[in-house]
């Protein structure tokens, strides 16, 4: 098939603003969007910039807006987003400063992640063996522990677009992972962070995040669980 790939480009050294450039490539319908933009970079225009690493939906580095929706380029097949002879649009994820082409400044995203203390906290003496938990307890954090920090959710949230101080759904999912970990002892500290005006109460259940998640994490439901935990703590 022949595909026109229309990419929103920006080079801070020569462009005043972003502009579209279109490239025609030959591809198989079963190729991924990542294969198509690799072809552009390797054979047509080596100045094109984007992030990718694993190529298999694990590292979370190739989040981009494909046909108006946040997706991972390595998990999106061409046949699902474009017809033979059609045009595919690719833009950087929104709400973070564009550094170059499809590369955005991820630091504010990771600042929010770091702020929820994304590590296991338990000051009790270590047992002889592992710190065990029941199957039921493990299931409570099963969804949130699937997150790969790709930022598809946070950068599709309209609240985050207008207020960058909102920690965003990805940070809340990460907080959820530890709040609902029966072995962790910092639940109250994380619930206090979630109760601040940058936390869960900013969420207006827009659901964009849930629709964008490549790991099919029910993000809005998890945010609601965190909201209920905060309310319970405050009662
Ligand atoms: Fe990506 Fe989903 Fe994690 Fe959000 S919750 S960062 S969309 S994997
Ligand atoms: Fe935003 Fe998701 Fe809430 S899109 S408003 S965090 S449900
Ligand atoms: Fe790693 Fe797509 S390149 S998730």
TrEMBL record:
It comes from Deinococcus lacus. Its EC number is 1.3.5.1. Gene3D superfamilies: 3.10.20.30, Alpha-helical ferredoxin. Its cofactor is [3Fe-4S] cluster; [4Fe-4S] cluster; [2Fe-2S] cluster. GO terms for molecular function: succinate dehydrogenase (quinone) activity. The keyword Calcium does not apply. NCBIfam families: dhsB, PRK05950.1. Keywords: 2Fe-2S, 3Fe-4S, 4Fe-4S, Iron, Iron-sulfur, Metal-binding, Oxidoreductase, Tricarboxylic acid cycle. Residues 3-96 form the 2Fe-2S ferredoxin-type domain. Belongs to the succinate dehydrogenase/fumarate reductase iron-sulfur protein family. Signal peptide: none annotated. CDD domains: fer2. Pathway: Carbohydrate metabolism; tricarboxylic acid cycle. This is succinate dehydrogenase. The keyword Glycosyltransferase does not apply.
């Amino acid at each position: 098939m022949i595909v026109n790939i229309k990419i929103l480009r920006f080079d801070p050294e020569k462009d005043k603003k972003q502009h579209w450039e279109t490239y025609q490539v030959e591809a198989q319908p079963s190729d991924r969007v990542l294969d198509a933009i690799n072809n552009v970079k390797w054979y047509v225009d080596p100045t094109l910039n984007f992030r990718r690493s694993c190529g298999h939906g694990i590292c979370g580095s190739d989040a981009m807006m494909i046909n108006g929706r946040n997706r991972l380029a390595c998990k999106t097949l061409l046949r699902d987003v474009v017809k033979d002879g059609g045009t595919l649009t690719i833009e950087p994820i929104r709400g973070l400063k564009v550094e170059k082409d499809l590369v955005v400044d991820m630091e504010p995203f990771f600042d929010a992640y770091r702020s929820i203390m994304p590590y296991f906290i338990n000051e009790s003496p270590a047992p002889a063996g592992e710190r065990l938990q029941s199957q039921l307890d493990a299931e409570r954090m099963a969804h949130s522990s699937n997150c790969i920090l790709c930022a598809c959710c946070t950068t599709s949230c309209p609240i985050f677009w207008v207020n960058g101080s909102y920690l965003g759904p990805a940070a809340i999912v990460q907080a959820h992972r530890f709040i609902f970990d029966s072995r962790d002892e910092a639940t109250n500290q994380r619930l206090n962070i979630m109760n601040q005006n940058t936390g869960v109460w900013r969420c207006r259940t827009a659901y964009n995040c849930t629709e964008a998640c490549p790991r099919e994490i029910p993000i809005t439901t998890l945010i609601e669980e965190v909201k209920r935990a905060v309310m319970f703590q405050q009662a």
